[in-house]
Amino acid sequence: LVAYELGASGSMASVSFQSAAMGSVFARFPRVLLVHRAGEPAGRALYIFLVAGPAPAQGTGMARVVHLAIPRGESAGSLARMYGVFRAFNSACAQTQLLLVDPDLPQRPALAQAFPTAEVQLSVFHLCKRLQVQIQQLTLDGRAERLILATLSDTMYAATKSNRRKMHALLRDLVAPDLLPQLHTDWLLDDEIWATHRERTWGESIYYLRDLEMVTQGLSEVFSAGLSLESCITSLAQHYQNPQSSSPAAKLEPTENPEGDSDEEINRRTEERIKQSLKDICTEPAVQLCLSEFAVVQKSVQLIGTGEDALSIQVLEDAHTVDLKGLSSCTCHFSQVFQLPCRHILAALNSDRKTLQPEMLDRQWQKGSDAHQARRDSADGLLEILKSSWNESLDKSLLVSFLAEEISRLLIHCNREEFERRYRTLRELADSWIGPYIKVKL
After folding, report:
1. Contact 223/239 with Cβ under 8 angstroms?
2. Considering only Cβ atoms within 10 Å of each terminal Cβ, which end of the chain, N or C, has fewer?
3. What residue stretches are annotated with the SWIM-type domain (predicted)?
4. Coil, helix or strand for 11?
């Protein structure tokens, strides 16, 4: 089904498109409809209509798309005509009970008038993406930003009242008061906004948010190419039918496969090469740590999105960002503390059919380096822990070891005044904890 308007020159000025498959999906899942708007440099806008309730059983996230439209403009009248076309194409609109929208969606009353029996509510997907961008623009301290974004991920995947209150309190404590109004932190405490999303399990939330990210990003990229409306709607329809052709994963360089081996065989060989590269380059403790991380990658679903200079890697957990320049760092705790290839970096290597390179590794973990020789004793101790059977005492021992090393690092990398203050505080804590008359060597 296609509806369009012609401009004064006779060229297409607006278009609405819906395939039979799209109409079938909406007829089955009409209760909750999400409306996403994507802009492009020429000033046109693409409106994507998606079902936001239960996901269709088959296909990729693109199976959620039920209608595509490029209106003539974004006046109330133009958008009302666009929504009217959607209703004309879909008799199941009478069953729509909830409309989820971007906070910045233009002319929201026009949408409400087109669906008089449905409630219009903010979309959690759009709310969280907006909040994520705003937080990254605040130029907060690195640790504060990572803590806020990690807490936001927890809230997105488990939208409990406790998690939302925690996120709200964190923003209130770490963001300057004059900046809080633009973040709309009150949205976090609004139960009505989160009601539908809260019904999803942790796993359902992951796949729902992944579907929306993949669909909106893929279609927005096609739309932003600046084609004529005739060519644009054709390209959008082709992308809907074959989303893999321009999906983020497809942007990675293909691996040569002259033997015509199966994907399973290629994956097996890639994993073996990654393991061998770890053994060739890394010290033994580093090998043990990284192999444990890689084991998680091999047993988990990898969700990969891409930006201009970073990959978003999610391995059935909170998403983290891998620096694409050398694949040498990631925002996760393992990478930050150990400065070793984590499960997310290894997932990126595995997906791109690449192996570990020396320049991706901190020198202290490389075989034969001066830093390696200087830390050999501590590394041997760590190796003994790694090789031992795990129990509670070893867990505590490793925790104490890491904590001591982190405290030492913080004491070394600060100015004299800060050092004196931190050392004095540590001195008082040690003396008061173990005994006021016993001087403990720090």
Report:
1. no
2. C
3. 320-353
4. coil
pLDDT at 387 (0 to 100): 54
Burial bucket for residue 9 (CB in 10 Å: 0-12, 13-18, 19+): exposed
**Helix residue spans in 257-358 (DSSP H):** 263-281, 284-299, 333-338, 343-351
Helix, strand, coil share (%) of the chain residues, nearest 5: 60, 15, 30
pLDDT for 381 equals 52
Does residue 328 sit within a domain? yes
Q: Who contacts 255 (Cβ-Cβ below 8 Å, separation ≥6)?
A: 266, 270, 353
Same domain, 11 and 118: yes
Task: Specify if 424 maps to a domain.
Answer: yes
Q: What is the pLDDT of residue 299?
A: 56
Residues of the chain falling short of pLDDT 70 = 55-60, 243-264, 266, 296-319, 364, 367-399, 402, 432, 434-442
pLDDT on residue 332: 77
The residue out of 343, 365, 387 marking a domain boundary is 365
Q: What contacts 325, CB < 8 A, 6 or more positions away? A: 309
Does residue 44 lie within any of the structural domains? yes
C-alpha angle 107-113-119 in degrees, rounded to nearest 5: 90
The residues with which 17 forms a beta bridge, in sequence order, are 2, 68
Query: For residue 44, what are its two tokens?
Result: 């046109």
* Nearest 10 degrees: Cα torsion 343, 347, 349, 350: 130
- Contact between 82 and 41 under an 8 Å Cβ cutoff? The reply is no
- Predicted TM-score (pTM) of this structure: 0.56
Q: Does some domain include residue 141?
A: no
* 16, β-bridge pairs: 3, 69
Question: What is the domain extent for residue 407?
Answer: 401-431
- CA Rg value for the chain: 26
